[in-house]
Amino acid sequence: MLQFLPPFLRGVIALLLLVVNTLFWCVLLFAFSLVKLLLPFQAVRTRVDPLLNAIATAWIACNSGWMRLTQATVWDVAGVDALSYEGWYLVNANHQSWVDIFVLQHVLNRRIPMLKFFLKQELIWVPVIGLAWWALDFPFMKRHTKADLRKHPERRLQDREATRRACEKFALVPTSVMNFAEGTRFTPAKHASQASHYHHLLKPKAGALALAINAMGEKFHSLIDVTIVYPAGAPSFWQFLCGQAPKVIVRAQQLPIPAEFSVGDYGGDPAFRMQFQQWLTDLWDNKDKQITALLAQSKAL
Questions:
Q1: Which residues contact 240 (CB under 8 A, 6 or more apart)?
Q2: H-type helices in 127-198, by residue range?
Q3: Looking at 247-299, which runs of residues are DSSP E strands?
Q4: How far is residue 267's CA from residue 207's CA, in Å, rounded to a whole number?
Q5: Which of 80, 213, 235, 269 could make a disulfide contact with 239, Cβ separation 3.0–4.6 Å?
Q6: How far is CA 216 from its chain centroid?
Q7: pLDDT at position 138, please?
Q8: Where are the domains positioned within the chain?
Q9: What is the rounded end-to-end Cα distance, in angstroms, of the chain?
Q10: How far apart are CA 230 and CA 295, in angstroms?
Q11: How far apart are CA 32 and CA 136, in angstroms?
Q12: pLDDT value for 40
C-alpha cells in the first residue's frame, strides 16, 4: 500500500510500526510474566505459558501486517501448508541475516507452535526485547573460544545445562525449538575461513541439535527443515525495513527424526556422534543443492 514512497521513508515508517507494536505487546507480556515469576509452580506455568505464547504470536502477526503495508516483497513459499499447530517441532534453517528470524516468523506463525530460538547471552541486554525473550523462556547460551575451553574445559557443560533446562520448560506446552545449525550468519569471509566445501552454506554444527533432541526425548513430532534464499542477496535489517528485499524464497519440509537420536549420547559415544553428524551432513548437502537450484530457477524467470 505504501510501496510508492521512497525506500528511506518506508524504512522509517516500518521501524516506527515495529517499535510501537513491540512496546504494546510487551506491556501485556511483562504483566503475565510477573505472575509466573511470583508463582514459580508448574501448575501456574502450564496456564501462563500459553498466554505468553499467544501474546508473542499476536506480535508476530502485527509484524506481518506492517510488512505487507510497507513492502512489495514477493514471497515464494512452499511446504508449509501441511504443517500442524499441534505438537512439538524441531526447526532447522540456514542463516544469512537477522532478517531470517522475521522471515521464519512470518511464514510459520500460527502454522506451528511459536518458535523459540537459542540466543547469545549478550542479547539479553537488548532493550525491551531482551527481557521479552527472557519472559518467553528463550535459552541464552554463552559462547566460548576454543582457547577458553582448553583452559576451562568445565565450561563445555554450561550450554548443555542451559539447553537441558530450557527443553524441560519447552516440554510443558507445545513448542517449536529453532536452531541455526551453522551457529552464525553466513558471510564470504566466514565461508573462506572455514574452507567450507558447500557453495552457499557454512559447515553445520551438530552439538546443539543433538542435545535438543536428547533433552526433549520423543516429544518432537518431526524436524522441519527450512531453506531461505534471497535471489538479490541477503538484505541487512535496514534494507529489509526499506522494502529492498524484492523476493524471498522459502522451502520447508518435514523430516522424521530417527528414534535412536532421542536416547543417544552425543558427547560420550563416538559411534553415535559420527552417525548423527553424517545425518546432518546429508541434510546440509541436499540443502546446498536446493539453494543452487532455486537461485538458477529464479534467474531463469
A1: 97, 99, 102
A2: 129-135, 146-151, 156-170, 188-194
A3: 247-255
A4: 8
A5: 235
A6: 17
A7: 83
A8: 73-300
A9: 25
A10: 8
A11: 10
A12: 82
- Tracing cell 521464519 back to the chain, one arrives at 104
For residue 279 the three cell numbers come to: 545425518
State whether residue 266 is helix, strand or coil. Answer: coil
Block residue for cell numbers 513492502: 71
Integer angstrom CA distances of residue 126 from 11, 31, 84, 106, 140 = 21, 19, 32, 22, 12
Sheet arrangement for strand 115-117: 74-78, 247-255, 220-229, 88-93, 176-180, 115-117
What fold does the segment set 73-300 form as a domain?
A: Glycerol-3-phosphate (1)-acyltransferase (3.40.1130)
* Residues of the chain falling short of pLDDT 50: none
pLDDT digits (tens, 9 = 90+) for 267-286: 788 999 999 999 999 999 99
